[in-house]
Amino acid sequence: MNLQLTGHHLEITPALREYVQNKLTRISNHFDHVIDIKVTMSVEKLAQKVEATLHVPGNDLHAACADENMYSAIDMLTDKLDRQVLKHKEKQGDHHKTNGAVKHQNVDQLLN
After folding, report:
1. pLDDT tens sequence across 33-70
2. Residue 44, beta-bridge partner list
3. Tag placement on the chain: N or C end, fewer CB within 10 Å?
4. Which residues, in sequence order, are CB contacts of 110 under 8 Å at separation 6+?
5. How far apart are CA 109 and CA 112, in angstroms?
6. Cβ count near 6 (within 10 Å)
7. Eight-state DSSP code of residue 103
8. How far apart are CA 79 and CA 62, in angstroms?
9. Domains contained in the chain, CATH given
10. In a 3-state reduction of DSSP, which class is residue 80?
11. Facing residues of 65 across strands?
12. CA distance 4 to 10
């Protein structure tokens, strides 16, 4: 998983970088096929904004959060991304019935 952090009107401190990395490991624990994540942090007056785009095979997931505290905005963002990843993972599941399909039944069962 490649992680790209950028700051808009904000310097990314090592503490912020480590906090984001620790929070995003939860997403990679739920879904192993995350290609890369782009996180943008910005400050506009009193609002601390965090946006993230997650690139997974077949889809791009985007979430944005704003709060007075950057750390709580990051927490809300990871919660949103986690829900989106779980929903994407459910959609990618195998929808074919293995025992009910005709090709998996014995020829004797089909002739009777």
Report:
1. 778 889 999 998 889 999 999 888 888 889 999 999 99
2. 47
3. C
4. 102
5. 6
6. 12
7. G
8. 12
9. 2-89 (3.30.160.100)
10. helix
11. 50
12. 15
